[in-house]
Design goal:
By secondary structure, this protein is mainly β. 0% of the residues lie in helices and 55% in strands. The chain has no helices and eleven strands. Strands 2, 4, 5, 6, 9, 10 and 11 form a seven-stranded mixed sheet that branches. The chain has a four-stranded antiparallel sheet with strand order 1-3-8-7, with no helix packed on it. It is globular and about 45 Å long. The chain starts with a strand and ends with a strand.
């Protein structure tokens, strides 16, 4: 059974930092690209960052230079380090992966809330 469990969200003032974690189980973690998405109230879910199986990373333009995605294939965990946070970063953050068994299947975590406010 595939499980993705996010943690690390919370309340942080503008300019602050926060680190999110997503613990994965139920599949071969090292063989799967991992992604972080976020969804703010009233807005569509948007892609934040991706890390491939070969550790190649990519980011949405508004996160470049502020967010860092990384993975630990021993701990089966993907991380999102966020710095210089802004109020517009307030959202629920989700990790996600696509597994290819009988075609692509998307799996999502339950999300963790990040609130940037003074």
């Amino acid at each position: 059974q595939v499980q993705l469990v996010e943690s690390g969200g919370g309340l942080v003032p503008p300019g602050g930092s926060l680190s999110l974690s997503c613990a994965a189980s139920g599949f071969t973690f090292s063989s799967a690209a991992m992604r972080w998405y976020r969804q703010a109230p009233g807005k569509e879910r948007e892609l934040v960052a991706t890390i491939s199986t070969t550790y190649t990373t990519s980011y949405a333009d508004s996160m470049k230079g502020r967010f860092t995605i990384s993975r630990d294939n021993v701990k089966n965990t993907v991380y999102l380090q966020m710095t210089n946070l802004k109020p517009e970063d307030t959202a629920a953050y989700y990790c996600m992966t696509v597994l290819y068994t009988n075609g692509p299947e998307l799996y999502w975590g339950q999300g963790t809330q990040v609130t940037v406010s003074s």
